[in-house]
Design brief:
The chain contains 16 helices and no strands. It is globular.
């Protein structure tokens, strides 16, 4: 891996570690308050579903976005769900709390100053990956596929940290890599000693997410066959499919194409698919993701 043109490691301080980066931002990237409270209730055997619903309802903005997401085509319920209590009854406490994290994390992390990163493209890519990961997980028989929605949604949040703390270096890396995220990951590793996936995984560990979710995020750029988990392979597959989709591409927003454009060939997609068993209908995943994409973007990013 060649050194970046203007990053001279001989006359500059060594880059901070992931621990130093996150320690330096501990007051900014702390877990969303509502998520902390509802997870505490979830661990309390004496707490009722109504108690969880009451905590969520204290945040009208969160409640509105949560119900908008649940009522989108993403879930496809025949009857409208108009209360958090009803959502818990239909989805179950565990999956509902996963969606609480998804909605509240987008809101809190979007407040990070990152003037050198296109936040709209970033979150559109993340939402596309989240929908794809959930769709793949459901077809692969993964328990609680909403976990994969969260992993997909937050898989790249390390970029938010890096572009906030090291904006010039990250802009340089992004310019050098162009639209090739695999090249960008390699440059991050060569320059920093770690990549954005490691930062994201460590951040989620600080939020006390399950280790399987942290690992799915931390390892989502690992090569297939390197001992990665099934969840990490699913996120990696969904990430590649999001980039392939154009509308969900992280760094190609300006090149959005018509909906009927031919799908580009991507050998990596097929190799990851084979690694997770090869029995997931990827075309059905693409269709489900496309169907739910606009509604999910509206629920998570829209006004109101």
């Amino acid at each position: 891996m060649s050194r970046l043109p203007v990053h001279d490691q001989t006359d500059s301080a060594p880059p901070p570690s992931t621990v130093e980066l996150l320690d330096d931002m501990s007051g900014i990237v702390s877990p969303p308050d509502v998520y902390v409270r509802v997870t505490e209730l979830l661990q309390d055997s004496a707490a009722s579903a109504d108690a969880i619903a009451d905590v969520i309802a204290l945040d009208p903005h969160l409640t509105a976005r949560l119900l908008r997401l649940v009522n989108s085509v993403y879930f496809g319920f025949a009857r409208r769900i108009d209360t958090v209590s009803r959502a818990i009854a239909v989805l179950g406490e565990t999956d509902l709390v996963s969606l609480v994290l998804a909605v509240s994390a987008v809101r809190s992390l979007s407040k990070l100053p990152t003037d050198r990163l296109d936040l709209e493209s970033f979150w559109r890519h993340s939402i596309h990956c989240a929908l794809g990961a959930r769709a793949i997980a459901r077809r692969a028989g993964v328990l609680h596929p909403e976990r994969l929605f969260v992993a997909g949604l937050l898989h790249d949040v390390g970029y938010l940290v890096l572009f906030n703390r090291l904006p010039d270096l990250m802009r340089e890396i992004a310019t050098h890599a162009g639209a090739d995220e695999e090249l960008m990951v390699g440059l991050e590793q060569a320059t920093l000693g770690f990549d954005h996936a490691a930062v994201a995984g460590d951040l989620l560990a600080r939020w006390h997410l399950p280790e399987t979710t942290c690992a799915a995020v931390r390892l989502h750029h690992q090569d297939v066959g390197d001992g990665e988990s099934l969840e990490a392979a699913i996120v990696r597959l969904a990430d590649r499919m999001a980039t392939q989709s154009c509308v969900g591409a992280l760094q190609r927003r300006a090149l959005q194409l018509a909906e009927d454009v031919a799908v580009e060939e991507d050998p990596l997609i097929e190799s990851i698919h084979v690694a997770i068993g090869g029995n997931v209908d990827l075309e059905a995943v693409r269709e489900e993701t496309a169907e739910g994409f606009t509604a999910a973007v509206g629920a998570l990013l829209g006004a109101g």
